Amino acid sequence: MELRHAAYQAFVCQNIEQKQALAGELYAYSAINNIAIADIIAPHTAPGIPSKPDIITPLKVDKRSVYTIEGHAAMVHSICHIEFNAINLALDAVWRFANMPDDYYRDWIRVAKEEAYHFDLLRTHLRGLQHNADGSPTYDYGSFPAHGGLWDMCEKTKDDVTARMALVPRTLEARGLDATPLIQTKLRKANTPHANEAVAILDIILRDEIGHVAIGNHWYNWLCERDGHEPVAYFQQLQDQYDAPKLRAPFNREARLKAGFTHDELDALGQ
Question: What's the pTM value of the predicted model, to 2 decimals?
Answer without folding.
Answer: 0.94
